[in-house]
Structures
1.
Amino acid sequence: MLHSGTNATSPWRFCVAPMMDGTDRHCRYFHRLLTKHARLYTEMITAEAAIHGDRDYLLGFDPSEHPVALQLGGSDPDKLRDAARIGEDAGYDEINLNVGCPSDRVQSGAFGACLMRTPDLVGECVAAMTQAVRVPVTVKCRIGVDDQDPEEALPALLRACVAGGVRVFIVHARKAWLEGLSPKENRTIPPLDYDIVRRMKAKYPDLEIILNGGIDTIGQAERLVAEFDGVMLGRAAYGNPYILSQVDSVLFNDVADPVSREHVVEAMSAYLQAQFEKGVRPHAITRHMLGLYHGAPGARAWRRFLSESAPLFRSDVLDRARDAQQRTPVQA
C-alpha cells in the first residue's frame, strides 16, 4: 500500500541536487554549515565504482552531512543491488538512481537519461535495490528524452518504478536531448514543464514527487513546495551558496538566526586545516566556496583571491581570502 506524503513533513522538502564535479564530500560539509535541514546528495557514482573502487575515497562522508543520499549510476540490476547495499552499509540515508544525466560518459554506458527509454529495465534495477536495502530507494529522472512524448514516457517510468518498490521521485522538469545538446545546454535549453509534474502529482497523490529544474531562489522554492512534496536546487545553490542560509527559517520554520558568512569561513578554515594535514589540496575545498560572497561587498576580491591561490598549497588560504574581501572598500 502506498503511503501518503505530506509535504510539510517530507524528508525531501528541500534538497541540494547531485552535481558532477560539484557535490563531493567537501562541498557537502560546506553546505551543511549553511543549512541543518536540507537533504544533501553525492555526485553520481557508478555502481561499478562503488563495488570495485576506493570506497573510503568515493563513499566516505562526515557525520554532520546527514541527511545525505548516495546517487548511483548504472543499468545492471545485480550491480546496482550490490552497490546499494554497500551504500547502506556506508551509512547513507537514501540510495538514489540517476535516470536523468545526459552526459556523453553516461550515454556510452547506457545509463542516466538513456534509461528513460527502457522503463521496464529501470523497474528491474530498482526492484533489485529495494529488496537489498532498508533505506529508501529513490529515482531522479527527466520528463523524457529526445522525441519521446513526456505524457507517455514519464508515467511509464513512474509505473515501472512503483512496481519495483519506489515511492519517491525527483523530477527535473525538462526533457534531455541526447543528440545535439551538451550536458550544460541540457540544464537550460529544453523548456521547463512544471505542469506535467503537477499532473503526475495529481495522478499519483500517494507518491512523493520532488520538483527540480529552474528554481533559482528560496522564495521560489517556498512557493513551489506548496504544490509538491519537495523541491531540489542545483546550480543556483552551488553558484550562490549563501542562499542556503535561508532554507531553515523559510522552509522549516527554524527560529535560529541564519549563520553568518564569517562563521562559515571560520568553520571551513578549521576544516581545511584538518584536511590539509591529511594531504588534501586546499583548492579541492575552496573551489566550492567561490560564490560565498555573491552579491556582498568584496565578492570579487574573495573570488579572485581563491582563484589565483588555487595552485598554492597553504592551509591559511581562507583566512587570507577573507582579509582580501574585508579590505574591499564599501561603495557609498
2.
Amino acid sequence: MMIAHSFRGEVFGPAQRLHGATYVVDATFRRAELDADNIVVDIALATRRLREVLDELNHRNLDDEPAFAGINTSTEFLAQVVADRLAERARAGELGAGARELAAIEVTLHESHVAKASYERPLGSP
C-alpha cells in the first residue's frame, strides 16, 4: 500500500511536511479453536477483503480524505483502521461463516525490514 500524508506536531520533525509511505501489510486472524474444516478463516475470502480495504487507502493523499481530517495518520493508526475495517467485514460474514468465531485480528504495517507497527483488534464473543 502506498500513501501520502503529513503530520501535525513537533514530535514528527520533518514528517510534518507532505511525504509518502509504502507499506507491506500483514493480517493475522486468531480464534480459540479451529472450525469443522480445521481452519481459522477462509484465507481466500480474507485475502479478497484485505485487498478491498487496502484499495480504499492505496495511492491516496490521506490529508485529502474527509475521514482522516485533523488526524495524524501514523503507521499505528493505519494498522488500526485496516484491522477495524476487516473486523466489520468479518462480523458481516464477508470472510465466511467461520470468521464470526474470530477472537482477534492483528494488522502489521511494515515500512521497512526494521520498522513496523501492529494493532490487534479484539473481536469478543460473536
3.
Amino acid sequence: MSTPSHASPTRARQPIRAAAGSFLGTLIEWFDFYIYATASALIFSHVFFPGSSQLVGTLSSFATLAVGFLARPLGGIIFGHLGDRFGRKYSLILTLLLMGASTVGIGLLPSFEQVGLLAPVLLVALRILQGIAVGGEWGGAVLLASEHAPEGKKSFYASFAQLGSPAGLVLSLMVFRFITEMPEADMYAWGWRLPFLGSVLLLLLAFVIRRGVHESPEFEDMAKAQKPVQSPVKAVVRDAWPLILLVMGACTIGISSAYFTNTFMIAYATQYLGIKSSVILECLSVVAIVQLINQPIAAWLADKVGAGRFLLITSGASILVPYAMFSLVSTGQSTMIILGISLAKVFSSAFYAVIAGYIVNVFPVYQRYSGISLAYQACGALIGGTTPMVGTLIAGQAAGQWWPLAVFYSLLAFTSFACVMLLVRRRSTLLQPSFA
C-alpha cells in the first residue's frame, strides 16, 4: 500500500513552509492595501480631488477606500470558487498577480490636474481590482496555513496569515514616514507614487516563495474522496447562511479596528488634534510592532485555553478600552498616543489573530474557501471600508468631543462579542443538519 502524500518527509516540512508562504503573501497584499489607505488619509484629496474642502476631500478619498472593500466579497466569491474547485495554491497565485498589477497601475495614474475626472475614475477602477485581489487572498492564505497545521495548533498556524496585516502596516508606515519628510510639492507630484511602484519587487519575492508551497493536504484528501461541488458559493449560502451571518458579525472588531486606528486615526489626529502627520505615523509604526509581537503570542495562548473563550475575553475587553485610548491620544504627546492606541490594539489584534483559525472549522473542506471568504469579505465591505467614513462624519459633528467616537468603537466590539457567543453556543447545532 502506498504511503499518503501528506505523510512523506517533504510533506512533513510543509506546515512551516505554508505558514511562511501565507505570511509573506499576505504581507505583500496588505502592504499594497495599507499604502492605499495611508495615501487616502494624506495624499489623494490633493491629487485626485483638488478644490474641495478638507472634509469633502477626505471623505472622497475614504470613499475610494470603501469601494475596495465593496469589491472584496466579489473577490471572495471568484477565488473562493476557484480555491474550492481547483485548489488553494492555484487561487493564491492569481490573487498575487492581480494585486501587483493594480497597485503598480495606481502608481502610474495621472493626477486630476492632468486629465480631469478621468483620474479619479481610473483610481476607483484600480481600487476595485485591489479589493477583488484581497478578497480572494485572505481566505486562501488562512486555509493554506491552517490545513497544513498539526492538530492542536490550528490557531497558531492560521495566525501567520494574520501577521501579514501588521507587518504590511509597519512597512507601509515606514515608507510614508520617509515620504512625508519630502518637500510638499515633491510629495504630491511624485513621492507618493514610490511605494506603489516599488511593490512589484515584493510581488516577485512572494511569487517565488508561494510556488514552493504544496497544495493543502486536506483539500487533496477531499478531492480524492469526492468530486468538488460545481458551485461552492451557492452550496454554502444554501446550506449555512446562518453561520455566514454569525461569522460576519464575529469578524467585526478584528476588521474595523485596523481601519479605525490605522486610517481614521491619522485624519483625526492631524485635523482635530493638530498633530503632525509624521508624528502620528511614527506612533502608529510603534503600535504596529506591538501588534506584530502580540498576535503570535495570542494565537499560542488561544490554543491552550480554547479559541472561543479567548475570543469572548478579547472582544469583551475591546468594548471598554476606547475610552482610555481617546483620553490618552487627546494629550497630543507621542508616548501617550502610543500607549493609548497600543492598549486598544493588544485586545483587537489578539482577537484578529485567533478569529481566522476559529472560523475555518465552521465550514467543511469542500465549501471552506467560499464560506470563510464570503463571510469575512462581506463584513469587510459593510464595516471595514465604511469605518473611516463613519468616524469622519462623527468627528465632524462632535464639535471636538471624542466620546461619540469611543461609543462607536464600543458598538463594533460588542457586535463581535455577541456573535462569537452565539457561534460558541450554536455552532454544533447549526452544522449538524447541513453537514452531517
